[in-house]
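Hypothesis: this fold can be encoded by more than one sequence.
Test: take the C-alpha cells below, design a sequence, compare later.
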C-alpha cells in the first residue's frame, strides 16, 4: 500500500510535476533493465511488457523509487462511445483516477531505428519507424484517440539499432514540418534536462482537434545493445 504521507505529498504536486516523477522512475527502470536483461526480442510489446512486469509493476521497485501512488497497466483498451478505439501501451492511474475514471496519464511506446532517409533520393521513407512514431503515436493524442485530461502525456521511443538519437529526433521534427501539419505542433521536439544521468528527454507541444493545448514528453531509450 502507498505510504499515506506520500499520497498527501503527491496530491500537492502539479500534474506536470507528477508526470516528471513518473518519467524519472521509468528511466531508473530502463537503466536496471540494461543491466539485468542480457537480450530481448526486437518487438515493441516484448520490450514494454518486460519494463512493466519487472519494474513498473514491481512493489519493491515502486517503493524504492517512490512510485507507490501510481499504478501502471500494460495495453488496456481505450473506450469511446462503448467501442474500443485502441489499446494504450502504458496507462498510469493516479489518485485522480479514483475520483474521475477518465483522468489518467498515457504513455505510447514506439520502436525507432534511425533509418529514416531514402539515401538514393534524399527523401524520408514513406513507412519508416519515424513516420510510425508520428502517425500512430503523436497523432493519437492530437485526434483525442487517447485523451490528455491533465494537459501532459508522454511517448517512449525504444531505440533498437545503434544510431545518433539527437539526429533521429531532428529527423522526426523535419517529418512533422514536411508531412504532418495536421499534428498541430506549436513546439517541435526540444531537449530537456531534468533527469540525472540521462540526456535524451524531449518535449513537444500540440493542440488537439478540440483546440486544447497539451505537452508530450518523449523519452528515447537506447536498447540497441541488448536487442536480438
Amino acid at each position: 500500500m502507498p505510504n499515506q504521507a506520500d499520497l498527501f505529498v503527491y496530491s500537492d504536486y502539479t500534474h506536470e510535476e507528477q508526470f516528471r516523477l513518473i518519467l524519472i522512475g521509468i528511466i531508473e527502470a530502463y537503466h536496471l533493465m540494461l543491466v539485468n536483461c542480457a537480450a530481448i526480442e526486437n518487438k515493441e510489446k516484448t520490450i514494454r511488457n518486460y519494463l512493466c512486469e519487472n519494474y513498473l509493476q514491481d512493489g519493491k521497485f515502486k517503493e524504492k523509487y517512490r512510485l507507490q501512488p501510481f499504478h501502471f497497466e500494460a495495453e488496456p483498451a481505450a473506450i469511446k462511445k462503448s467501442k474500443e478505439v485502441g489499446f494504450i501501451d502504458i496507462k498510469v492511474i493516479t489518485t485522480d483516477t479514483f475520483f474521475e475514471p477518465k483522468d489518467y496519464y498515457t504513455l505510447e511506446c514506439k520502436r525507432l531505428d534511425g533509418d529514416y532517409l531514402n539515401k538514393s533520393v534524399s527523401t524520408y521513407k514513406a513507412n519508416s519507424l519515424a513516420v510510425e512514431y508520428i502517425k500512430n503515436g503523436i497523432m493519437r493524442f492530437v485526434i483525442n484517440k487517447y485523451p490528455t485530461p491533465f494537459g501532459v502525456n508522454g511517448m517512449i521511443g525504444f531505440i533498437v539499432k545503434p544510431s545518433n538519437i539527437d539526429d533521429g529526433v531532428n529527423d522526426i521534427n523535419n517529418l512533422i514540418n514536411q508531412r504532418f501539419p495536421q499534428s498541430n505542433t506549436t513546439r517541435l521536439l526540444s531537449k530537456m534536462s531534468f533527469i540525472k544521468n540521462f540526456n535524451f528527454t524531449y518535449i513537444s507541444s500540440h493542440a488537439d482537434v478540440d483546440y486544447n493545448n497539451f505537452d508530450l514528453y518523449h523519452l528515447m531509450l537506447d536498447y540497441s545493445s541488448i536487442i536480438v
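Residues 38 and 226 are 6 Å apart (CA to CA). The chain has seven helices and eleven strands.
Hypothesis status: open.
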